[in-house]
Amino acid sequence: MNEKNSCSGGCSQDKDGIQIGPPINFDEQLEVKGAFYRKVQKGGFWIILLRVAQFLFDFIRVLVLTNLLKPADFGLLAYAAITLAILGLFTQSSFDDALVKNKKDIKSYLDTAWTIGIIRALCIVIILNLFAPYTADFFEAPPLNLIIRIMSISFFLGSLSNIGLIYFTKDLEFSKTFILQMAEFFTDFLVAIVFALIYRNVWALVFGKIASIIVRVIVSYWIHPYRPSLTIDWAKAREMWKFSKWVTGSKILGYFNMEGDDFFVGKLLGGSALGLYRISFKISNLPATGISCVLSGLTFPAYALIQDDIPRLRKAYIKVLKLTSFLSFPIGALIILFAPDFVKFFMKEDWHSIIPVIQVLAIAGLCRSMGILTYPIFLISNKVKLMNIILLVRLGIIVVLIVPFSKYWGIIGVAWSVVISAIVVQIPAYYTTNKYIGYSFLEMMKHFMLPILGAGVMMVIVQVFKKSAFWDASGETSVLNGLLCFVSGLVVYAALICYVDKKMNIGIIDIVREQLEFFKSRK
Predict the structure, then answer these.
(1) Is the pTM of this model over 0.85?
(2) Which site among 61, 62, 179, 333 is 20 to 30 Å from 285 CA-CA?
(3) CB under 8 Å to 28, separation ≥6 — which residues?
(4) What is the total count of domains within the chain?
(5) Using one digit for the tens of pLDDT, what is the confidence trace for 165-199?
(6) 25 lies in a domain?
(7) Enclosing domain of residue 372
(8) Distance CA 37, CA 522 (A)
């Protein structure tokens, strides 16, 4: 429903997408625990494909739609998404997370979870239709009344999806998730672009979202044989609620940490500013957080399977941490370096003001990509309450900073308030996580040093390239030269990482090699 970037498990329903990542070698003794290892690797393979496909769809979608629609159109959809998401969060049950964590046979719980979801959706539809006019008045956006009424239908339609899909997450069967999500992405992509070409207004975005949900419901019953029925077992509902109440609280706080900036931008600066800000967020965060959201979507169910084996859990977590930092830091650096060129090459002049916003939000995206990795550990260690306190602190920082920052610096000020809050909460989140798995905080920080050094050297060299023959005296260049410079930066980073890793035996290259060997074995 959102235009920022989403994930299950570790990311709040983001500003759009889905989750998980590269296959991870959790145990070298494959002859003993090989079945689990292969299941995780297989799941990671499919979700990597899913994430790459989503990135490509989103990339093309943003480029096409920003050249067909105005920032105000994206702002209107954002207003509606904020309204629907807030109401949905305060009424959600989070039963899915409870079922994934539950080690017992969950079949007897499914009908109850599905039925409660439908009742909840119907209540949301009624409330949204009653309050749509007041919401439109609050944001001073009259068209929002009808948009909210139409989009409220999506809540009910979404609740009809097959609850049996939970088995795909619980059993790491992400090949089926790939089919489901690809159908959604393609539908949203195709419908939004077709309607944008015809009507050139916000309804292209609205119809794309609703069409994708309809397709999700249809495909969910095609790919899984379970057929739910309208039944409520109140004992089962109470049992699921014992775990999920704290998860629901964390998702509410996570949402306001993630989307609260949108609310303030929309209310304080207007719809056009909100549209500019959301696209800035999407461009700046999609690559970096895509990596961690991808990993997070796999690690929660995977960690849940080995939650009682702390040494094995610690080993898995460290590998995920190394791999994420290795990938996220150079991507964040390249977004900062090439944001001006990207926007000028591919977007209309109406959007050129987002360049500095993208660069600032890229820092927040990097912090978020690393912070998301702690979420699955908080869940499996039953420390969700503590995580909520950390999220509440971050939200407090945003609230304190965002009003004065937006007043003096506009949406750039909003972006800086998000960066500051994201940096501050990393320390307690990682300290708590490391304490649970028995790992030194200082040892963990060492895993960040090499990627930071590599990204810094890469930025210096790329800047030299940009002042050389690749760019003319006016600072302009061609798309081809820009691409060559971009690739050169990645080559420099990879070469430096390989050299230092080999000398210091850090282990990043071994992890990457494991994953590459797995993909080769799938031929």
Answers:
(1) no
(2) 179
(3) none
(4) 1
(5) 887 777 667 778 788 888 998 999 999 999 999 99
(6) no
(7) 30-439
(8) 15
